[in-house]
């Protein structure tokens, strides 16, 4: 009897991993966030499975459902959008399961930033242009950012920044990054990545806010800011270089 925290992917039902789909198809109980997980995935659940939408449940009620399933002897598929390793609120669930003595495993999924990069047809790390990607968010009323992780501080690195949960605050993003990246820095926003209603916006740091507002994008989006998004002149990777000695381990 195990709880499986499964990354359901960024939106498209067929972007769940083979392992995740296999576990989902064998679990008699499935908890999912109805506002984020594609409903098509629920068709993979076994016939008669107990399906629980967690969109309006607090952490105590979610934990109670997980513990109940374990007590009943049932495996549980706990579907999370994207990948559980970032911005998934999975830590507090695992902590409570540890306290309750309930075993669990984590099955990774395709994260939203990877789906966004695929939609843009961009590699986020480019030789001699940028080799660092920062995944972050901005402070909101609900959750403050730790000291030293504000955009003004992170922006000093000049690395590609990927912002989750920030489309509603795009003006703040622009204001805090402009001094470090410049008005002409390539910027993109991808909303509902991999879904049929996917929205892709490309521009610069000084033009993206207007595009976001015009498109009505306020959630389920990632903002990307960095020079690698527009890199055209760069050195080829050493990995496939004809000059590389392939006899050296």
TrEMBL record:
Protein name: Precorrin-4 C(11)-methyltransferase
Family: Belongs to the precorrin methyltransferase family.
Record-linked Pfam families: TP_methylase
Pathway named in the protein's UniProt entry: Cofactor biosynthesis; adenosylcobalamin biosynthesis
Statement: the UniProt record of this protein carries the keyword Glycosyltransferase: no
Entry's EC annotation: 2.1.1.133
CDD domains in UniProt: Precorrin-4_C11-MT
Keyword flag Methyltransferase: yes
Tetrapyrrole methylase domain residues: 2-208
Superkingdom of this protein's organism: Bacteria
GO BP, sorted A to Z: cobalamin biosynthetic process; methylation
Alphabetized NCBIfam families for the sequence: cobM_cbiF
Molecular function per GO: precorrin-4 C11-methyltransferase activity
Enzyme class: transferase
Protein keywords: Cobalamin biosynthesis, Methyltransferase, S-adenosyl-L-methionine, Transferase
